[in-house]
Amino acid sequence: LKQVFNKDKTFRPKRKFEPGTQRFELHKRAQASLNSGVDLKAAVQLPSGEDQNDWVAVHVVDFFNRINLIYGTICEFCTEKTCPVMSGGPKYEYRWQDDVKYKKPTALPAPQYMNLLMDWIEVQINNEDIFPTCVGKCDEEVL
C-alpha cells in the first residue's frame, strides 16, 4: 500500500479550496450530498442561488481528485510492458496530441498517456483564467 501513495510516482496533491470561500462551501455541500447515498441526479443539481460555473468547477476538481486516487491504485499494474497501448477495448485506441511535443496524434503506452493526460488536466484546473479561485465575494472586495 505504501507504493500506491508514493507521491513521486502515483499520487498527485489535491487541489484544495480555501476555507471560508464560496467554493469551499460549495465543495462541502457537494461532498455531503455525494456521501449521503442520495440520487446522483439530485446531488449534482445546481443549488438555488449559486453560480453554475462555480458549481461545475467544484465538481470538475472533485472528479479529477477522485480519478487521481483511482489511477494511483492501479498504475503499478499497468506498465509500458503490460499496457503498451492506451485503449478503450479492442475497437478504440487513444493517441496523444498536445501541439507542443506531440504535433500529430501519437500512439503511446498507457502509463505515459495517462501521465501526460493527468498533467494536462492539472494545468487546466490550476489555470486562473479557466478556474479562478477567487469568485463571488472576492470580486466584490476587489472593486
Automatic annotation (TrEMBL):
One of its GO terms (molecular function) is kinase activity. Zn(2+) binds at C78, C83. Keywords: Kinase, Metal-binding, Transferase, Zinc. SMART domains: Mob1_phocein. Signal peptide: none annotated. Pfam families: Mob1_phocein (PF03637). Transmembrane segments: none annotated. InterPro entries: MOB_kinase_act_fam, MOB_kinase_act_sf. Coiled coil: none annotated. This is MOB3B kinase. It comes from Crotophaga sulcirostris (Groove-billed ani). The gene is Mob3b.
